[in-house]
Amino acid sequence: MSSPANKKGSFGVAQVILFLSIAILVIVVAFPVLLILFNAFWVEDHFDLANTISILKQPMTYEALTNSLIIASMSTIGSTIVGTFFAWLVTRTDIPYHNFMKSMFLVPFMLPSFIGAIAWKMLLSPNAGLINRFFMDHLGFDGPIFNIYSYYGISAVEVMYLFPFVFIQVCGALERMDPTLEESARISGAGLLTITRKITIPLVMPSILSGALLIMLYSMAHFGTVAVLGIERGIYNIPVLIYERIHQSGGSFESIRMGAILATVLVISAAIIIWAQRKILSTGHYQIIGGKSFRPTQLKLRGLRIPLMLFCFAYIGFTIVLPTVIIFLVGGLSTYGLPFTPENLSLANYKFILFDFDVTRDAIFNSVTLGFTAAVITMFAGVMISYVIVKMKVRGKGILEFLGMLPFSVPGSVIALGVILAWSGQFGINLYNTVWIILVAYIARYMAFSLKANSAALEQIHDSLIEAARACGATMWQSLKDIVLPLAKPGMLAAFFLIFLPSLRELTVSIMLYAPTTRTIGVAIYTLNEDGETVISCALAGIALIIIVLGQFIINHFNKKAGV
Amino acid sequence: MRKKGIMLIVAAVMALMTAVLAGCGGGPKQQSSGSGSGGAAKSGNKLVIYTSMKESLIGGIVKGFKAKYPDIEVDYQSAGAGKLMAKIAAERQSGKILADVIWTSEVPDFYSMKSENILEPYTPSNIKELLNPFDDYDGSFTAARLGTLGVIINTDKIKEAPTTWSDIYTKPEYKNAFGIADPALSGTSYMSVALLEQKYGWDYFQKLHEAGARIGKGSGQVIDDTSVGELSACLGVDYITNSKIAKGAHLKMCYMNEPNALLMVPSPVAIFKGSQHMDAAKKFVDYLLSAEAQQMVADAGTVPVRSDVKQDPKHGLPTPEDALKNGIKVKYTEILPEKENTIKKFTEIIGKK
């Protein structure tokens, strides 16, 4: 069973990699989280469980947990259906413009969900939402057609912005899948349904599940959408409750402790989710890159081709174009609440935030540099750690995987809290109030993305390829360099995007860590919005969207050149 | 050969991690400002102000201060009072408060900071010219603005301005359409909840709840929600409303015609003990309380602490003396220990489904 990487002699190197992987995760991830746990249970030099339990017993805690579960389940189910369906549509059918659609379906991944929530609030708030108003004023409806301030509203918005997690994974799996498997089934007389059920779905199931898992974890720990759409109607989940608690009491140590306790509830939920996923995945393990060249066959949609295409365009228009347009329009208003008429619209806000407003200029620069640096570091660290987890059969790597998933399940604000406790001088290193502390927090937070993407890619590299290389006399390094790394490159690049683009609009971590000169884009947008500078924050959101889309465009261009 | 290759990756990763953790130079970027860490970096003359005042107010004042003292570098962080206190708490735990000056509207915070002995007493040189709302003034903090709150109405939705606090729950146009900012986020909102409770008891909020009042978010956002028509009216802060009216928002700020029922919330300014820029901090406090800066306070659409500055009648604000006289009286030291309970009770009553 043991893989050649470990068996053939290179014992020392393997140990070093393992040690280093653990060291990185412990220092960057586990240490801050442990400090949180320590602060959750340790009151003034002694272990105090009674206090912890009394907080957990409060009805608000139950309600927050229930809400977290309801919203996360609805979002996960919705996103998985939407993501899988569209992934299948653009990769395996002859739907027109599928390349264009594929890139459009990835757009929401770039859009910050809290900006989406702000946009949807403008469109679907019950009294003033533009869509609701249209129905009430022009079509004779008595009340709003949809109230965005509800479980359905929150989940719908989360689905719109989270489904690419599944979409991206399933697309990858479907594209890389060996079509001869399906063909041979068809030749043997299996119908489309049987093929889908027995071949296609089992083959892409790991990708679907790992995407769904990402969404579940993300949604459980997600702050932005619930904060924007839920608070006013008393809907809050655990991250929002933590945020509220910490701010409610003017940030007393007591409330920071309380936040830490609530966060441990999330950490435990995450552990359960990860355990469940491993349980499911261990029932079937597939390596689907066979090392042969292939081209997936496409299903002919025939009569459904045009209706499905129109459906996709309508979906794109409704969920991507409409909110984006609203953000840009509101960003052009002189003050929020005025109608969108030419005399009320101008570029003044855009000019102000780009040239005259230090806060927003700093924010853009900080976010771009932070995002890039975090992405590069995390990508390299991630591929190394994933290699240990996936390809090296060493004891204790489960701990490694759990360590890597940890920050993803802890709300950003709590990671930030942990990072503050760890890196502000008490242990010899003081990064507080510098960009470095945000960078460390980003690395901790996004390590999970990198590990997921890299291990998914590494898992699909069949051991036989490495074995073949080793049998032909290649050293371990040569087989790594010539076989593993080239095949892992898509995973590494995926990791880079999965980190760089989200960190451009990261909010929950940086809001706790920013200093006067280290505001990030997300912080600037959120605080301006919360301060009631709606038009300025929308203008900045618009600029951020342009930067993000531009960044994506440049990256795609490079990828094409590199032939990936 | 193979070991060398692996070690290369290993070394690269190690180098990256070290670079990050040590925060050593040569990284992609470090802000030009002296980082506040460890005192090793030269923090120069950079004065840091934490404030809950919005850009439209603090921006101009800092600009004016910079013009007067070009050799003092100033930076400010504008956020809700709750957020700032959370930041200060975290900073205290890590051993050093990075702000030199704090200026918010959450008066009880100042009393608690005073009792925790982290404020540097400083009586401004121009104290005699100022109106002081604090009976127990000892220089720990000085009011730099007499903020007022009123009922902000959307003039497209509500034609007749409210005149009493009971209008909000008796008149139909406020039904399900009145918002109050989240007191957990906004210091002014917390203070106005405490003041209204003092004056009218929890019964008042019970009635508001029955009339469908809602908890909004930040103090600015409820005003934008009112402006767009999601709410018809809200409890709002003077200068935020006035800056939006100046830009054309269909809003009106209304004060109630009841004796001693004005929501007046002083915004104290204080200097932290152990500030590295004590001299600059004192200069800033003096400047903030000078006629020049207080004129900016008045022009931004809120009530100054000096009676010698001009108030633009278009804002319809009370004079500083009237604000002081008509404000709902409260013993800050008494409401201080109740803060968490007040917010909790408010949330329970208004947020009840």
Explain what the structure shows.
The complex is a heterodimer of chains A (564) and B (353). Helix content of chain A is 75%, strand content 1%. Chain A is mostly helical. Chain A folds into two domains: 1-57 and 344-564, MetI-like (MetI-like fold), CATH 1.10.3720.10; 59-239 and 295-331, MetI-like fold (Orthogonal Bundle), CATH 1.10.3720.10. Chain A has a two-stranded antiparallel sheet with strand order 1-2. In chain A, strand 1 (42-43) and strand 2 (46-47) form a beta hairpin. Chain A is globular, with a radius of gyration of 24 Å. In chain A, 53% of the residues are buried. Chain B has 353 residues and is of the alpha/beta class. The longest helix of chain B has 21 residues, at 2-22. In chain B, helix 2 runs antiparallel to helix 11 (291-299). In chain B, strand 1 (46-51), helix 2 and strand 2 (73-78) form a beta-alpha-beta unit. Chain B has helices spanning 2-22, 55-68, 81-93, 107-115, 167-170, 187-200, 202-210, 219-228, 238-246, 278-288, 291-299, 320-326, 332-335, 339-350; strands spanning 46-51, 73-78, 101-103, 119-120, 142-154, 178-180, 214-215, 233-237, 251-254, 263-272. At the A-B interface, helix 2, helix 12, helix 16, helix 18 and helix 19 of A face helix 1, strand 2, helix 3, strand 7 and helix 8 of B.
Provide the CATH top-level class of the largest domain in chain A.
Mainly Alpha
**Number of structural domains of chain B:** 2
Which word captures the global form of chain B? globular
By oligomeric state, this entry counts as heterodimer
H and E order of chain B:
HEHEHEHEEHEHHEHEHEEHHHHH
Please write the string of helix (H) and strand (E) elements of chain A. Answer: HHEEHHHHHHHHHHHHHHHHHHHHHH
What's the CATH H-level superfamily name of the largest domain in chain A?
Answer: MetI-like
Q: What is the strand content of chain A?
A: under 5%
Biggest beta sheet attributes of chain A: 2 strands, antiparallel
> Roughly how many Å is the radius of gyration of chain B?
23 Å
